[in-house]
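Batch job 17 of 40 flagged for manual review because the log was empty.
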Amino acid sequence: MSRVALILLSIAMVTAAHNAVAADKEKPSRFAPGRAETYPGHQTLDKITIAAIPYVTEEQTHIAFDKVNPNKYGVLPVLVVMDNGTGKALRLDLKAEFVAADGQHLDATPADDVIYIDGVRKPPKIFNPNPIAVAFPKEKKGPLNVWEITGHAFNAKLLPPGESASGFFYFQTAPEPGAHIYLTGVKDAATGKDYFYFEVPIGQ
């Protein structure tokens, strides 16, 4: 290989390395929630600890969803983290509701529906009792059609003893002081016995 070719190859390798470093700097930090007991406002019941954290700031949403902030499209992402201290495996079929300070309930919107929200026809600010009635046409995916929306949703179905599970629930509403998340669907995996419901505060 000629000296000129070697010089050109060296320049190309340095340029590629520089671009790779620059690209890495633009990527958000790896999304890795801690255990529920480490978050303020967590609740422990029957040795199950749950935390619910609304993601509202640009810093929070960047870590979880990269360049997309769901709040800009009328969607509040709430991270739910669960620690299993029961000594038994838990079966999870979680249902989450956003409960306002005045007691009104709003069901979570499935992640598979969130990706169709286009941000132009925003849902009502709060508490439509039947969110499916304001679902967006599924023939057009919107700006929330990023893998993080479904990839970071709460999908765990079994939680071994001593382990922790986490993921997002999505609500077509805005954050408000005094709100909480109402969770049901936690069962003893061996017996099928239901655990009590959880009410976890998410007030700002």
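Reviewer: the log was empty due to a logging misconfiguration, but the result itself is present. The longest helix spans residues 3-26. Unflagging and moving on to job 18.
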